[in-house]
Amino acid sequence: MPKMKTKSGVKKRFKITASGKIKHGVAGKRHRLISHNAKYIRQNRGTSVLAKSDTARVHAWAPYGIK
Question: How confident is the model at residue 66 (pLDDT cuts 50, 70, 90)?
Answer without folding.
Answer: confident
